[in-house]
Each structure stands twice: as C-alpha cells, then as structure tokens.
C-alpha cells in the first residue's frame, strides 16, 4: 500500500497541477500582456468545467457510497474534496494577484477600469444616466418572500444579491440577474479609455432598484452546477436517441449547484441562508477579488488589437510540402502516405480530399466518425454534397461529446436531411476515434483512402491545437477501418485487429504487449525504449506495466500535457521514467506512441490517451506508421518536444513541475515547429 501511494497521484490533484501550469503562463511576464489575459481566462474556464464534471462527480459518489475509494491513492470522495478545496483557494489567490497586476499594466495602454469611489462628478452623472436609460429597463429584480420563492439561478450566470432591511427592521433578500444579451457587459465611459462592467454598475445602483429598503449588504454571485450526467444510465430504448439527448441537455442546466462564487465577503448568516436556498455546503463557497467571469477580456483584446507587441506574433498554418494542391489529392495519397501536422500545416489538403471525394464519379462511399466539428463546417458541407451526388455516406455523430451535444444534434439533422446515414454512437461507449474511409472503384479496381487522426474534424481547432493526421492508401489499414465502421453500424465493437489498435478490446492489451516486448529486450541486456505523447495518463493497468518496465531498465520518456497519475524518477520504482508537460500558445493534443529503439521501433498516432475511459470505455483508434519518412518525422518531433526548455515543465519525484534550468540554447518546440513549417513552405519571413 505504501508503495502505491508513493508512485501514484490522485487524478484530481494532478489536474489542478495542470491548471496551475496554465496559470503560470498568465503570470509569465515574458508572455505578451493580452495573451496572459487569455491564459487567465482559460484557467477560469478550465476550473468551471472541473467543478461541473469532476467535483460534481465526487459529490455524487458520496451520495452513492461515501466509503468508495479510487484505485490509485485509495482516497475516498470526501478525502479528495478535502484535498481539492484548499488547493483551489490557493490557486485563486494567485489568479487574483496576477489579474490585479495585469490590470495595472493595461493602464499603460490607456485601458482603465473605474470604480465609483474614484470617479469625477461628471462621470458619475453619466453612469447614472446610462444605467437609467440602458440597463434599468431590462433587468428583472426579485424579492424573496412567502409569495416569491427563491428563483432558479442559471449555471455560470452572474447575479447581484442584496440583503434588504424593511422599515420595521425585517430582512429580505433581493436578487437581480446581471446576464443580458441586450445590453453591453463592458461599458465605455465617453471621452476616456475607461470601462466598467455592467454587473458592477447594477450592484452599485441596487439602492435605486430596491427603493424603500435599506441595503445592509450586497455582492455579486455566480453558481456552478453539476454537469456530470451519465447519459447511458438514463437512456430509455423506447426514446429517439437524438430527442433524448435534447432533454438531457435541458436537465444538465438544472442540476444541483457545486460551487458559489462571491465578489464580496458577506456575513456568515447570509452565506448560510444562500447555501440553504441552493442546498449547497458552505465549504463550496469561494470569494473572488477578480470579476466572476473573465470572458470580457476578449473585448479588451479587440480594442488593443493594433498594439501588436501585446500579442503573440502572427502565425498562419502553412502549405504542406507533401502535397501539390494543383493535383488530385487522392492520387497523391495513392502513391505515398501523407501526414499533416496542425496547426503548423494547413488542414486544406484534407478539406480538398473530402471535396474531391464528394465530386469524384468513381467514389462510391465515404464513412466518417464525428466528435466535435466547427460551427461553420466545410467538412459537413462536403459530406452533404457527397450524399446529394449519390455517394453512400455513413456518419457516426457522437451526441455524447460533452458540451458539444447541441452543435452535434443540429449537424446530425442536416446530414440526415441530405440523405446521409447517421449513426448515434453505441450503448455504453463513446465513439472518440478520428476515422475516415473513402472507397472508390476505378476501371474495375477498388481502392481506399483512409484518414486517421489525433484530433477532431474541426477547422477552428486545427489552428489552435497540435494534432496529427495520417492519410494512406494502405489496404490492410483500410480493411480494418472498414471493420470498425461495420461494427459501429451494427451497434458493436471490433474484437480483433492485426494492424490498428482499436479500443475498447484491442488497444490496452496490445499496448501492454508492446511494453512487455521492451521489458524482454531489457532483461537480456539490450537497449529498450518507450516514448509516449498524450494529454493524460490515468490507466492503472498500463501504469503498473510502465513501472515494471522501468524496474527492468527500459528507458521511458513521456510528454503529458495534463493529468499524470504516475510519479516519475522514484528510486527503485520509476527511476527510468521521465515526464514532461508542455503548456504554451497552442493546446498540445496529439498522441504519439513509440515502442522500441532506433531501427526496430513501432510508431503510432492515436485518438486515445492512456485513461481507463479511453482504453476500455470508448471506441478509439491508433494507426501504425509504416512509411519510413513519416516515422522519422514523428520521432524527430518527439525528440524536439523532449528538448523544449521554454514551455516544457519536468515532473520531479514529488509530483511537482518545474521549467528545466539549463544553459542550453532556448528551445520553444511549438515555435520551432512553426518556423520549420514556414521554411518548408518556402516562406522565411517570420
């Protein structure tokens, strides 16, 4: 038991360490000011989702079985929550401090946030007139009483709350929703580069809103609600699945609160009263000294857009040297495998491939899995055109893609209307694979183009996330991709494969087998190596096998952006395991698996992290890289990421992360890959 607790870290605490690394980018003064603001906003939105999903799940677990223990550190749900809360408070204080410092820095660029204690009489008169004309008519205040029950507070909306005293000394509670799409949230004071948030204005004028009452106390509050609904557990087979998901989304918006944030400290009795109305433990109440929602910073960035030194240098996805876009994309892939690396290279060749397939008279079918797609999707447009041109188009749309359900529901309707066959996932499994199979029959011969990627078919995120996309005419890969689609069409999962790795049945076991192969090499005195790049590592069975490999002498390098439940470099246990996390301008999202030393290595790209949910509870696909040039390209990319000493943090044997301190030439791997892409495209004007 002691050994387990030493080498494993709780996943929730590991995730908080990841969000701390995001916050560090907001604190980093070498990052341009407006980009630091973005990282502060990402920190906040990450934390919102953490409470909605992970904290919500832990609270639910307490209700089910308070003695339930997670399988790595053996912590109960209550023990995890008790460890999470102080850590969140500590990180939030850092967020408050860096926000204040960034607001001071904005003053140098003529952006000022005003408050009512530090404004002139003329400004005060303007704001009062603005409030009366633009905001007061649009708000809907409520006083809680016998005839007016406590209102439903929407998830992540801001409300002004006031303690009101009547003339006879009784206290009541007044609530005003501050979220309104009609009035501007960021209010500009004319003639100055000075701004105020609308919720701050509403809070100030609470006495004008609740006339006849004495305002004893007031604050802004924001509620975060549990979003962790198990769709499969609730599904009724008699319901249309798409209609069921629509109802599920509505339910999510009404789930129990898991956090309340306040802008001002309030009397304990008032907190207890609010918590009573919301059925929320006071332990989950947080005071913030920053605005409760930082999304307004994107408006500030738009105002400052011309001050280019406040932003990262402009980068544009480049033309891939592997493609000649004046020639048929399918014909080029038929001759040689191709790889695109986002965001450094443009997604255009893949978009052109789909459009070409939609128009090509020889293409007979297109099959594809969709998890998250862009709001304005060229990919969907090509699939619709293909169906309208008489192709057999089969699309699996994963309606359980968390927080993207509404978008996917709308796309599924449009695809069906165009004549596509749409499948809505599987019972008990999310389909997270990134798989596309194009079949064409030319001069009596059947040929295939298979695309397998690490990221979603999303034009927007392909410019923001690092991802990889393989396109191949390899028949063995195509045949196994076809088996995946056939199984999905029948509501089943693939039981065996020889080339691909396909979860839930043929990924974890095959990964463990490849780790065992490296252990065998190490035991007979040969060099043995494993390199892994992914978002998260939580799968205990794989981690235990990696520990065994480390003990046998296998060298293991891992680049893991987020959660890592395995603590590296512990003598006698994980001393041969080295872990890095890269948090930079682009979200690291690609997955690369490398097994074996140079000359005998097996290299894969995949949709799957090594999390139990991915390896055993999702349909995921990893593809082997058979082309030697692409294999070498991926290995060199991995080595470059291991050499990053600007945005990479090394994890030590206590589970803490630090940027490596060395005298080497500075290397930011993301900037390096972009510079390389510009050079490869013949554009050296960085």
Summarize the helices and strands and which ones pair or pack.
Elements: H1 2-7, H2 11-27, H3 33-64, H4 77-107, E1 112-113, H5 121-135, E2 142-144, E3 158-165, E4 171-177, E5 186-189, E6 194-197, H6 198-204, H7 206-209, E7 214-225, H8 231-234, H9 241-252, E8 257-262, H10 268-278, E9 285-287, H11 297-303, H12 329-335, E10 338-342, H13 348-359, E11 363-370, H14 378-388, E12 392-397, H15 405-417, E13 421-423, E14 430-431, E15 435-442, E16 445-453, E17 465-472, H16 475-489, E18 501-503, H17 508-523, E19 529-534, H18 540-552, E20 555-560, E21 577-582, E22 587-588, E23 592-595, E24 602-606, H19 612-616, E25 618-624, H20 628-642, E26 648-651, E27 657-658, H21 669-680
Parallel strand pairs: 1-6, 8-9, 11-12, 12-13, 14-25, 17-22, 19-20, 20-21
Antiparallel strand pairs: 2-4, 3-4, 3-7, 5-6, 7-8, 10-17, 11-15, 15-16, 16-17, 18-25, 19-23, 21-26, 23-24, 24-25, 26-27
Protein name: Polyphosphate kinase
Enzyme class: transferase
EC number: 2.7.4.1
What does this structure look like?
By secondary structure, this protein is of the alpha/beta class. 39% of the residues lie in helices and 21% in strands. It is built from 21 helices and 27 strands. Strands 14, 18, 19, 20, 21, 23, 24, 25, 26 and 27 form a ten-stranded mixed beta sheet that branches. It is globular, with a radius of gyration of 27 Å.
Number of helices: 21
Mean pLDDT: 91
Round the Cα radius of gyration to an integer and report it. 27 Å
Alpha-beta classification? alpha/beta
Provide the helix percentage: 25-40%
Largest sheet: 10 strands, mixed
**Regions with little confidence, pLDDT below 50 for 5+ residues:** 1-5, 231-239
Shape: globular
Counting DSSP E segments of at least 2 residues, the number of strands comes to 27
Give the N-terminus to C-terminus distance in angstroms: 54 Å
Percent of sequence in beta strands: 15-25%
